[in-house]
Amino acid sequence: MKFFLMLYADEKVGAQIPEADMAKFMEMLNGWVDSLKKADAFVSTSALAPTWDSRTVHVENGELQVHDGPYAETREQFGGYFVIEAPDMDAAVGWAAKCPAAKWGSIEVRPFSRF
Questions:
Q1: Are strands 2-9 and 106-111 parallel, antiparallel or unpaired?
Q2: What is the pTM of this model?
Q3: d(CA 60, CA 44)
Q4: Distance between CA 69 and CA 55 in Å, rounded?
Q5: What ranges do the domains of the chain cover?
Q6: Could you give the CA distance from residue 110 to residue 97 in angstroms, rounded to a whole number?
Q7: Contact, 29 vs 44, CB < 8 A?
Q8: CA 70 → CA 35, 49, 83, 98, distances in Å?
């Protein structure tokens, strides 16, 4: 079963992390990815550009509305994701709990739809 792990954190705080500290964090994250791969649980991943580079699109009464940034103001922003394979939600939550990103943000775990 596939699960979508959405990583949320305060991108303004993240942008202020010293380069050496970020390199250490990325090393830990890469180790976690290696663990996923060894367990045949890794499917894909990607980081996202910051919200200030995004647009929100909506069509209202046939008219296109485009706004800078995300639709809602939040303390944490969606910054990247992993798609993993796990037998059930408990196993997917277990993988998310081991992700280094869970130490400085939140991870939403959502199963892919069966449809």
A1: antiparallel
A2: 0.87
A3: 34
A4: 5
A5: 2-111
A6: 14
A7: no
A8: 33, 12, 22, 28
CA distance linking residue 34 with residue 22, whole number of Å: 18
Whose tokens are 């394979």? That residue is 85
Nearest to 77 by CA among 47, 43, 109: 47
Read off the amino acid at residue 3. Answer: F
What the block records as the tokens of 51 is 């919200």
> Using CA atoms, how far apart are residues 94 and 76, in angstroms rounded to an integer?
22
Query: 2-111: CATH homologous superfamily?
Result: Dimeric alpha+beta barrel (3.30.70.1060)
Q: Token pair for residue 55?
A: 């647009």
pLDDT tens per residue, the chain (115 residues)?
999 999 999 988 888 999 999 999 999 999 999 999 999 999 999 999 988 899 989 899 999 999 888 766 778 889 999 999 999 999 999 999 999 999 989 999 999 987 7
Which 8-state DSSP code applies to residue 54?
-
The residue count of the chain comes to 115
Written as one letter, the residue type at 97 is A
